[in-house]
Amino acid sequence: MPMTFSPDKMLQGLRNLKECRNYCIALSGGLDSVVLLHSLVHLRNAGKLPNTQSLSAIHINHQLNAGADNWQKFCEEVCGHWNVPLLTKKVEVLLGSGEGLENAARQARYAAFEALLTSSDALLMAHHLDDQMETLLLRLMRGSGPRGLAGIPALRKLGKTQIYRPFLAFSREPLKHYAIQAQLQWQEDDSNQNLDFDRNFCRHELLPLIQNRWPSYRESWDKTLQLAGEADLLLTELAQADLETVKGQDPSVIDLAAVLDLSPARQRNVLRLWLMEASIPNCGWNLLQKLTTELIPAADDATALHQGEGFQIRRFRNQLYLLRSLSSLELPRRTDWDARRDPCLELGVNGALSATGSIGHGLKLKDGDVLAVHYRKGGEHCQLSGRPTKSLKKLMQEQNLPPWLRDRQPLLYINQTLACVPGIGVCEEFKATGAQAGLLVTWQQPDLRYKELNA
């Protein structure tokens, strides 16, 4: 027997939205969202809305259906009749990501929600129990883990606002019964009958078959959702404890030796949390499996990396680094620098050089000497003070300079001769000694960590 619905059954959930000052209903014009809006209007008119004096609605026009403008007009008329302020927004649905029209429309819709709503809003959405069943089935088809199998969350963050779904305990049948009893009108989206869309195929073909054989499947599957949610919570708590062990002060770097002390399953678990905390998208099985079976066991060299969308993960000196994607760097062939007159030199996207005066240490400059900043071409050699001549490549390796910084390392030349490698040392011929004036040159390296970690 499906649970019956009445607006009063939403009150406890609404009371939990303590920071909310405005309930904003995501209004598509379909049956579910119209029932949600009507229910909130009923509570408002009865003086029962908790925590707030404000009720509004938002309609996203995807411009994908010939009737899209009519749906928007319908929402405007309904909100006008019920005295609910309505915000409408037309969005452009961009295809080409390979994830299909449904996902592209969803991404456009949620991006608009995030941009338009504030921390005082709670976005109320009309997803119900049957939506949960469809979602669970689709995620099983994709091979989701406990987090995916936990289904649509009742409450979650979206930018500055939060999303709340008060209908998840109700199937569509009692919601439709409520709409008929209240003599509500709504819009029918003809694309909901298109079986080319996976969700529609589940709704119209698969789930009716399942219900015919197992009438109580919703209750059983709902238990699965709850158990998966509990399992995900336990895995998250374990990952949090492991992450404290493997990470240092810099959240973009983790200790590879500590990761290897964990079982492969815990390695994937802690890596998932590490990447999720940095807002890396699509931290799924394929990415985690590639990291634990290919990148982590790989040789510790400059080519050991995983390139993702907008980020890369590299291993170096028994550590894993999370960096933003590094495009080919366009560096000038030569930049002249009068370091005694101007002690700071900005290098654009490559950080900055700075020079401080010293006696008996650092780089010795004669009258008329001009510093020229160059970058690696290959084959450079340098004899540091008291040491044999070595290749620049060898010196960088000895100084543990990460491979992704080696082509960015600025080199200081005097009269076309390499004189100083900032951060590594001064060549013997150009080193200040005794009472000679010198310059201590340092390189402020560019911050190449994945940007979300620094937000």
Model description:
The chain is elongated and about 95 Å long. A hairpin with a 2-residue loop joins β5 and β6. α5 crosses α8 (198-213). It contains 14 helices and 20 strands. The strands form five sheets. The chain has a six-stranded mixed β-sheet, with helices on both faces. It has 455 residues and is an alpha+beta fold. It has three domains: 7-217, HUPs (Rossmann fold), CATH 3.40.50; 247-324, Up-down Bundle (Chorismate Mutase Domain, subunit A), CATH 1.20.59; 335-453, no CATH class.
Characteristic key phrases:
Chorismate Mutase Domain, subunit A, elongated, 20 strands, Rossmann fold, six-stranded mixed β-sheet, alpha+beta, five-stranded antiparallel β-sheet, 455 residues
- Biggest β-sheet description: 6 strands, mixed
Computed structural class: alpha+beta
Identify the CATH class of the largest domain.
Alpha Beta
CATH topology of the largest domain: Rossmann fold
Query: Order of strands in the sheet with the most strands?
Result: 3-2-1-4-6-5
- Computed over alpha carbons, the radius of gyration is 30 Å
Helix content: 25-40%
DSSP, total strands = 20
Low-pLDDT sequence parts: none
Looking at the overall shape, the CATH architecture of the largest domain is: 3-Layer(aba) Sandwich
Strand content: 15-25%
